[in-house]
Each structure stands twice: as structure tokens, then as C-alpha cells.
Amino acid sequence: MLKRVYLLVIIILIAQYSNAQGPVLDVGLRLQKAVNLYSENGFAVNYSSRTLMPDRLYFGFSYVTSRLGTAFNSNAIMQDNYLLSSAYYFKEKHVIRPFTRANVGYFSADYGDKIFDVLPRKSLLLSADAGLCFQTHSPLKISTSLGYNFITGNGLSGPGTLYPVFYQVTVSWNIFNRMK
Amino acid sequence: MKKALAIIIMFLFFAGCQKSPNISADILGGGQVFDPSLYNPQNFLVSLSNPNPTAEEAQKPVIIACHGYSATTFEWDEFNDWSQDQSKYSISRVLLAGHGSTYADFEKSTWHDWQLSIADEYNKLIEEGYKNIDFAASSTSCTLLLDMIHSGFFNHANTTVHIFLIDPIIIPSDKSLSLIGVFGPMLGYLKADNTTAENKYYYLFRPQETLQQLEQVLNTVRHELEDGIVLPNNVYLKVYKSKQDPTADPVSAVLIYNGVKTGNGNRIDIQLEDSKLHVFTRLRLRPNVTAQDKANQLNAFTDIATRIFN
Q1: Cβ of B246 and A155 within 8 Å?
Q2: I want to staple A97 with a disulfide (CB 3.0 to 4.6 A). Which of A119, A133, B5, B149 is the partner?
Q3: Could you tell me which CATH class the domain B41-307 is placed in?
Q4: Which residue, A11, A6, A2, is CA-closest to A178?
């Protein structure tokens, strides 16, 4: 365990002294809430390369789950969202940067009892969100956005707890960037 | 300039939205068609038809049948008709407040008013001496009853209260209901997908205020289920749920099953139906009723009529 911590510290230190124009790797926590349903929390990783529209085009992966939200210590349905995303950040070098993002992924819900195996509980995720990213000269970023799921449950098909509108806040740290 | 243009566009948009519908007189809500229980409540409510039961009558179970959002006592007519052959119990069909009347009445009713209609009939029957009172509820009435259980309404019942939930709603199938707080005031009302014949028994136009009330009670009970509802020892609960339901998402059954436990920690009874109907026990005025639909209805009626004696 201690070795892992040392390794992580070394990676962060190397990243701190790397080229400021280099790639960006934001790693952080994502807090998400579906409007009038569950809060689902997890993590997000976003990467921008130094060659392909650096610090503007980002590719990401995020995982949010109600297990770390509403379903924690409650009877709410445990559900997981795995998302791959592609985002474009406007206004480079600004403190407040608008961004827009397209997401595709996989949704899975655990209903807890075999009797409910006949009900739909898995789905493709297809969503878009747009919002603002607050970025100072430190590696810290705070982004918030409002999103829309194009695929939801409708009682006849699709998981019932897949809701259309969600909002999220992500607090991340660029581990490839040093303090300026 | 841009700001002024935006304000003008917004003004035109909001002004263009008709906040109240034009309701023709020949449908429910138009001011001429009413639920028959409003004219002759004694034909629908046992508390009025037989307010002084004999000792024998007082022991006979009374099933309070309560309908869903925007519906009327019509929703339980078939169970009432089917039960005419049974002399072992009686049925009291409750009309929820604001329902079966005018659009204006419906518009100003709250979910607490709807719930009070159910509680009132139960309390009257108790006061009159009835000993065995049970419930058959559909759709939103199920949600209202779950909230009553949660609030301890049945904690002091002297005999077992059997509660049967038909297609309960906790999660709506139409997920746009989750946004009614934002878009409702702009829209004013929503139009239901009723058949012409159904328009005499179900409101065609749903005021956004009542949709907000619906969303509010669904959220309230969902939170109660998340925290856990423990049935009092004298309450028996069974859920019947269509596997596909265009109104109450079937996942509602999962939330109830996971959220309600008996007093000794056991699961409640649940039965998933091979049906695509919302409130599968109401077949009258439905187009394309299948043999399976009829079998589901008969099985549910028989099951309810049997279980109230267990």
C-alpha cells in the first residue's frame, strides 16, 4: 500500500515538472444528479493530447453510480453508468471556459431479486451536456454542466430509472501539469 | 437590441401558450358530465349506503376501491360488477377529491386532498362499526396508500387490513413528468391519450398544477421507500404489476418490493402480469382486449376476493 502511495507521489512530481505545453490528464471526482431522481457519484478522467487541439479537445471516461449516491445505505436501486466522452473547450487560457460534450456508454441497474429479471435493466447511454469549466493557473479544474439523455426508459422498453435530464459537477486535478 | 428581441420572443412565446383548454361539454371536466358518485354517493360508498350495520354486517369485509390520477370510480366498476355474485364482502368505491368533476375543481386539488378522500371513507366505516376494511387501489391511489402506511395510519387497526395495489406508480413511464416543475407553468396543461369513450370517465386535460402534485407525491413516497417502510403487523400488502406499462413504469414494483418489509423483515407478495396495460384490471372501453388480458383481470379479482379472508 505504501509503495503505491510512493509511486503516485513520484508520478505527480514528474508531472509537475513536465512541459507546461504538454498533454493534460484531469483526474477527479464527478457528482451527478438526475432531475427528480438519484444522485450518482464516481470519478472522471479526461485527456487532451499535445498534438490534437491541445487543451481544447478532450477525450474522457467516467463512471458514476447510485451505490455512491442515493443507493448508499438505502433501498434505492443500485445502478451504474459507464461513459466515454469527447468534449470541446472554448476560450483557451480563460478562467471560465464553456464546453460542450458528447457521451456514449452503458447503463446497468441491479434490481436485487430474480423475479425482476424480466424487466429491462441494461441500456446504451447516449447523452450530450454543456456547461462551464472554472480553471485557474493551478492544475485544479471545476466543471459543471447540464445534460440530456437521449435514451430513457418508457415503461415498455428501457430501464425505468434512466432519466432524461441530469446535472453534474466534476472537480479534477491535472496530473500532467505543474503549478504556474 | 438583442436583449429586446429576446424579451419580445419570450413574450410572444408565453402569450401564445393557452393556459386553459377548451373543453367540450360532452366530456368529463366540461361542466356537464360528472362521475355518478357525485349524484348518488350512497350507491358507491358503503359508509352512506349502510351507515348502521348489524353485528353480522359489521364483520363482513368492506373493500375500499380507489382509482388513479385523473380517473373516476369507473376504474373499479368491473370489480364491483364481478363481485355482485359474491355476498361475502362489499365494495366502497371512493372518488378522489377534484376528480370526476370540473377542470377547475381538479386544478385546485392537491395530493393531500386526494388522500383525504380515502382516509375519510375508512374513518367513517370504522366509526360506523365496520371491523374488516380492506383496500384495492390502482395507480396513484397505491402511492397515496403507501404514504398512509408510512405515516402510521393503519398502526392501530384492530383486524388485518389487506391492501392490494394494482399497477402502482412510483416512477412514471413518461419521464418528462420529472420536468413538469419547469415546463408546466409554460404549458398550462397536458392532453391525455384517451379514447373518445374514455373521455367521459377520465379527464382529457390535465392541469399542470395537478401534474406537479402527482410528481410531488411520487417523489415523497419514493423517498419513503428509499428509507424503508415497515408494515404494521396487521397490514397485508400485495402488488400486482404489468410487465409493460405505458403510464406507471414497471420499475415502480421494484422500488416497492425493495422498500417495504413486513414487521418481521420478510418481503411482501408481488405478482408480475403478462400485460401491457396500465391498471390491467380495467378492461372496459379498451380497444383490442386479449384473452390474456381477461385472464389477468379474472385472476386478480379472484385472488383479491380470496385473500381478504386469509
Answers
A1: yes
A2: A133
A3: alpha beta
A4: A11
Partners of A163 on chain B (C-beta within 8 Å) are 175, 178
- Report the alpha-carbon distance of residue A75 to residue A110 in Å, rounded: 11
Domains of chain A: 2-174 (2.40.160.20)
Out of B251, B257, B270, closest to residue A160 by CB: B251
Whole-angstrom distance, CA of residue B190 vs CA of residue A79:
31
The structural domains of chain B, with segments of one domain joined by +, span 41-307
Q: What is the 8-class DSSP label of residue B179? A: G
Minimal Cβ distance to B258: which of A75, A159, A164: A75
B38 phi/psi in degrees, rounded to 5: -75, -30
Does residue B154 contact residue B161 with C-beta atoms inside 8 Å?
yes
- For residues B144 and B168, is the Cβ–Cβ distance under 8 A? no
Best of B224, B230, B239, B258 to disrupt the A interface by mutation (most A CBs within 10 Å)?
B258
In this structure, what C-alpha cell is assigned to residue B77? 366498476
* Tens digits of pLDDT across chain B (310 residues): 455 445 445 544 444 456 788 898 889 998 899 999 999 999 999 999 999 999 999 999 999 999 999 999 999 999 999 998 767 999 999 999 999 999 999 999 999 999 999 999 999 999 999 999 999 999 999 999 999 999 999 999 989 999 999 999 999 999 999 999 999 999 999 999 999 999 999 999 999 999 999 999 999 999 999 999 999 999 999 999 999 999 999 999 999 999 999 999 999 999 999 999 999 999 999 999 999 999 999 999 999 999 999 7
- Look up the ipTM and state it: 0.86
- B265 phi-psi bin (left φ>0, alpha ψ -120 to 50, beta other): left
Among the listed residues A48, A87, A59, the one whose alpha carbon sits nearest the alpha carbon of residue A175: A48
**Nine-digit cell at B200?**
367521459
Q: Which of A70, A74, A75 to mutate to test the interface with B (most CBs of B within 10 A)?
A: A75
Report the Cα B71 to chain-centroid distance in Å.
8
Instruction: Give CA–CA dist A174/A138, Å, rounded.
Output: 9
With an 8 Å Cβ cutoff, the interface of chain A facing chain B consists of 34-37, 70, 74-77, 109, 111-113, 115-116, 118-119, 152-156, 159-161, 163-165
Chain centroid, CA A120 distance in Å: 24
